[in-house]
Structure formats: structure tokens, C-alpha cells
Amino acid sequence: MKQFLILLLIIFTSCDSKVKKETIVIEENSRTDYLPYYNDESFTPNWLTPNSDAERDFHKIPEFSLINQLGDTITQSTFKGKIYVTDFFFATCPGICPKMTGNMAKIQEAFKDDDEVLLLSHSVTPTIDTVAVLKKYATDYNVKDNKWHLVTGDKNEIYNLGREQYFVENDLGESKDINDFLHTENFLLIDKQKHIRGIYNGLNRASIAQLITDIKTLKHEGK
């Protein structure tokens, strides 16, 4: 059984420097042959056997259709047979987003020559973050096209994906709708079968290091 290191971190969770306390679970290192699975906002680990009936019936990220910084349509087909890391940001954010993007860039660098690993960043202000805006943002942060997709699209679809499918806002018991701004520092690790396999603090260096380790573990899962 894996051991977990629980860190109580005080983190910035919005661009207006509003501070809250959050418990972040960081795996010390990989001590089993596979990672846990997650299916709700509590992020309680489920230890399933890969390729089992339980795994095949477990929560998966559904189909979607969004537009990236090149103006290309991005769907689940884009990630067929891929592991990917996803987050939610907006281009005009002066607070946590630049640091999150910088940490996502570290993941890009770690797997720059690995076609098996992709990155996906969703804009939470899609009416403002047009393709042209995302393209400039990509240039500013040295985003590698077709490796790291910055996407815009329908706001309802993006917010539903974030809250109801990726569970990135893990404010348990707090009901939110489309009028409530979606803003989170969480990164999610998604496997080739579209299961959530990890959640990480996108502002924390140790958490990013663990994410990189977990991607490597996931790459060898079942081999």
C-alpha cells in the first residue's frame, strides 16, 4: 500500500490574493505497480486493478469538442492512446496562472520528446480568450504546438468538464453554477482510458515533481 505525505499548505486560490487553507495529498514516491483511481470531488483513492471489469466501468472523462491555439478542433480523439495532464486558467490572470503555466512548462520540458504524453489547459474565460489570444499566450510561454493544447470554446461545456468531470474545484458541499467563476490551482493526471489517476497542486514544486514521477509510473503500468 502506498504511503501518503499530507501537507497542509496555505495557497493562493484566486487572482485577488484571497487565501484559504487546503489539504494537499502528495505521494512520497511510487511503491506499487499502479496509481489509484478517482471518481468524485472528495478524491478518495480507489485501488482498482488495471484492465479489470471494475476499472473498465469506472468514471471516465466524456467526449468534448474545443478549439486550441492553432484554431484546430480538440476532442477525445486527440488524446486517444495518450496520457495527459490538464488544468484550468485564463490568459489575463495576473496571479496564480503564470506560476501554474510555468510549472506546466516544466512538465512539457520533462516529456518534450515523448509522444505518449500531452498537456491540456482550458480557458475559464473563453469569450475573452480567443484563438488569437491563446496563440499569443502560447508564444509568450513557449508552448509547443500539438504537445500542449490551450483551448477555448463553449463556457458551459468547459465549466461542466471542470466541475462535474474533472472535479477540479474540490470545495465539498458547496454548490456552484455557471455564474460562479471557476478558478483552481489543481492539475489532473488522466490515463489512456480517460480515468483520473492523480490530483496535484499546480503551485507546489514538490507536487509537480510527484506528478512527473507518477506520469512515468503510469507509462509503465501493466507492462
Automatic annotation (TrEMBL):
Q: Does the keyword Transcription regulation apply?
A: no
Residue ranges annotated for the Thioredoxin domain, each copy included: 55-220
- Gene3D superfamilies, A to Z: Glutaredoxin
Q: Which CDD domains match?
A: SCO
Q: Which Pfam families match?
A: SCO1-SenC
**Keywords of this entry:** Copper
Signal sequence residues: none
Q: Which family does it belong to?
A: Belongs to the SCO1/2 family.
Q: What is this protein called?
A: SCO family protein
What taxonomic lineage is listed for the species of origin?
Bacteria, Pseudomonadati, Bacteroidota, Flavobacteriia, Flavobacteriales
